[in-house]
Amino acid sequence: MKCIAAAVICTFIISTVVLMPGCKKNPGTNGTGKKDTWAIIQDNILTPSCALSGCHSSNTDATYSQHNLVLTAGVAYDNLINKPSKNAAANAGGVLRVKPGDYLGSLLYHKTDCQSTHHTANYGATMPIGGQYLTFGQIEFIKQWIIKGAPKTGSVVDETTLDNTTVCSEPFVPLDPPAAAEGFQLKIDPFVVSPNTEREVFISRSTPNTAAVYINKYTMRGRPNSHHFVLYGFQNTALLPPANTLRDLYNADGSINVTTFSQMQNHLFLGGGTDVNATYSFPAGIALKLPAGTALDLNAHYFNKQSNNLVGENFINLYTVPQAAVTKEAQSINFANYNFSIPANQTKTITTNFTFPAATTVFMLTSHFHKLGQRFIIKIFGGPRNGEVVYDNTDWQHPLVINYAVPIQLNAGEGLTSVVTYNNTTNKTVTFGLTSEDEMNIIFGYYY
Fold it and tell me: Which of 329, 355, 390 is the last residue of a domain?
């Protein structure tokens, strides 16, 4: 999980577009001499910022299977009005892409307003990821258009609303650590992400416990534009990186830092993922054991498509339970296919089998691939359930994390099969790699 999606890939990309004065004076077709409100939203926000190749330009975009939304002129309006989205939280709450008259029931509003206090559900990151957010004037313009019934024609919102060109911002609130009796916190201190770059960093921290502890829950929090935060252990504790030192994956010239890359080969997945503001709880009676003073590697990847510096910062709280409450110790799954290629401008499905050397009970599965990934299926390999689909995900940015109510029982020699479909819309062959322009094919999970 050492990479990141391109910053412009998103479920709902709305970037800052400053309306030129001439736009306000363009005659419309409504007989008033004013441009239709919807036409302003389409021409000055959606078309230049969202209806881009790879984002929301057509159903051949690499990300289309994640959002099923095209925002080009002529189709955007009908694709938004009273249409459900693919966001699970929105669907559960009855929130549509645009619900005329109800801005709080419209995902377009929630995804463009960076001030998340107006909702409690997880609607994903504010858009555009990695780019500058909308101005307060643009957000209010969209909000008022929705309140006025989201009409396709007519000038229904005062265009002076757009004069507020202050870019939306919301102070980052650090994650409070748990009480000492409940667990402990680890963090990556603030660091700079330069303009128009990606930065992936690691830092090794030792846990503060003086005796073995059992972790049954963790909570993460990261700054905007962080695609993933992952917690790793080390397979060989004799080969640890220097403690409390920020290490970059890329050198200043963009080349791979060989030392950091070699240290990554010693990693053992322990937790985290692409949703950097998430909580994971182990099933009752199952916990992850951490010996006293365990060395862990904290990994974050940020991307910045703006012309100014951004700041990265990540927290993780690890919550403990008494040993007496633990009946099974969790072990991590890290099944990866590093040897594959996807030809230019082709769709390709790659199937890989992985096996366990001993009888195993799998209780959690999730997946990791990048922006070209359309679908990630996991099947059982071997035994009486051979070929049974147990996992199916189409969202590379927010992959499903499944805790199985009935764990998957596997005998020695049985395992899991990954069936991953990619749509390579680029003009080059794409292989496994660490950058946002490469791809991955990994099953993460837990077993005992």
Answer: 329
> How buried is 27 (Cβ within 10 angstroms: 0-12 exposed, 13-18 middle, 19+ buried)?
exposed
Task: Evaluate the CA torsion angle 232, 238, 243, 247 in order and state its sign.
Answer: negative
By residue count, the chain amounts to 448
Is 3 within the bounds of a domain? no
444 in the same domain as 313: no
For residues 352 and 306, state if they share a domain: no
- Asked whether residue 436 is domain-assigned, the answer is yes
Domain count, the chain: 3
Pair 199, 103 in one domain: no
Write out the residue range of the structural domain in which residue 251 sits: 173-329
CB 129 within 8 A of CB 13: yes
**Pair (325, 177) in one structural domain:** yes
Per-residue confidence in pLDDT tens, the chain, 448 aa: 334 333 333 333 333 333 333 344 444 555 667 899 999 999 888 887 777 776 788 887 766 767 888 989 999 999 999 999 988 888 889 999 999 999 999 999 998 888 767 777 778 777 776 667 888 988 999 999 999 999 999 999 999 999 999 888 778 899 999 999 999 999 999 999 999 888 999 999 999 999 999 999 999 999 988 878 999 999 999 999 999 999 999 998 888 899 998 999 899 889 988 788 889 999 999 999 999 999 999 999 998 877 889 899 999 999 999 999 999 999 999 999 999 999 999 999 999 999 999 999 999 999 988 889 989 999 999 999 999 999 998 877 778 888 898 999 999 999 999 999 999 988 999 999 877 778 989 999 999 9
433 and 301: one domain?
no
CA distance 157 to 427: 43
